[in-house]
Amino acid sequence: MPESMEGRTAVVFGVANKRSIAWAIAQHLQQAGARLVITYQNERLEQEAKDLIAALPGAEAFMCDVSFDEQIDKLFAQLKSHYGKLHTLVHSIAFAPADELKGAFLATTREGFRIAHDVSVYSLIALARAAAPLMEDGGSILTLTYYGSTKVVPHYNVMGVAKAALEASVRYLAHDLGPRRIRVNAISAGPIKTLAARGISGFGDMLKAHAERAPLKRNVDVNEVAETAVFLASDAGAGITGEVIYVDCGYNIMGF
Ligand code: NAP
Asked: Which residues, listed in sequence order, are joined to residue 40 by a DSSP beta bridge?
């Protein structure tokens, strides 16, 4: 079965709650046979993460705020001692201060720009660098992006610019890590109602417009995003690296 994840270990960043895209991906990776590790950002979220992984037998949860290099180093030292090798890393993390996601892009602050890029983009580079030595058998690194990287989506603002940088980072990382048989790809998901999405002003209108204009005439289901993640993580996606794969019911192909 090319989509089997048997014998592989995956670490998933970005499980905030049951609605998180990362949570659907974690569940589908485990159903495909992977051993799962999830991370949570801080002590306040520890109990919720531990309650969630009760649904994933054998999974473990570790703390890691990706804006601190020391926490990334500590996490990967723990992963090395617990598991030895790593095969899949899922980066499903983004953050911008709430005020940056309403009003005009022109009003973007220096600090808002810095935080959005640090947490949502630089973290992928830092995690890829830390994970690569554990991916001795090759591996697959995945991140989540959105169409606001390419076209203007009102109110997505600095996050659109950060997603453009994220997609470019995917290509540069794919080039650096390809010789080590580590693939790096992004899934560009259509809008899904999650905690992060609720912070974007006018998100309800986005959902409505997508469902009306997408060729499939509906919004994407989080499980469809998760199935694509399993495909890219597994040998079924072995020839794919440096790509942005749209899982958006076709919305991005429309000109009008
Ligand atoms: P979500 O459930 O709110 O997930 C966002 C995650 O980022 C949370 O788990 C959050 O952790 C984590 N995070 C933020 N700052 C962090 C930090 N410093 N260290 C560690 N973790 C941090 O929302 P989601 O919609 O599933 O978002 C996941 C990814 O999908 C994001 O990259 C998002 O841009 C992307 N995406 C979402 C949509 C959509 O419509 N929902 C569409 C396309 C792409 P805490 O909650 O613990 O802070």
From this structure: 63
Domain-embedded: residue 158: yes
Q: How far apart are CA 89 and CA 66, in angstroms?
A: 14
Atom of ligand 1 at shortest range from CA of 19: 2
Dist CA 146 CA 94 (whole Å): 11
166: containing domain: 9-253
Cβ atoms of 120 and 97 within 8 Å: the answer is no
How far CA 36 is from CA of 45, 81, 170, 205, 226, in Å, comes to: 18, 15, 23, 35, 14
pLDDT, tens only, 16-51: 999 999 999 999 999 999 999 999 999 988 898 889
Output the CA 1–ligand 1 centroid distance in Å: 31
Would residue 2 count as lying in a domain? no
CATH (domain of 51):
3.40.50.720
pTM: 0.97
- CA 37 → CA 77, 175, 205, 219, 221, distances in Å? 14, 26, 35, 29, 23
Q: Which residues are annotated as catalytic? A: 146, 156
Identity (one letter) of the amino acid at 75? L
